[in-house]
Amino acid sequence: MLAFRSEGDAMAWAAVRGLESAAAVGIGTLGELSRGWYGGRMSDDWRPLSPAAKKAAVRSAGLSGEFWELG
To answer: Which of 2, 12, 18, 57 has the most CB atoms in a 10 Å sphere around its CB?
Structure first.
């Protein structure tokens, strides 16, 4: 993961390196995703998310599209 000032900056960075930009999200969306993905991580009874729970966290953060489909 890399951080950029704008989606345009991310696309320009990728283009210069001959890479295809996969996905760009705002910091608020990234925070929403991380809360759903890692919430409770410091709890003694925390367990990794199931595949269905991971997909739900992605959807809950408002992310969709081919990049966000989790195998």
So the answer is: 57
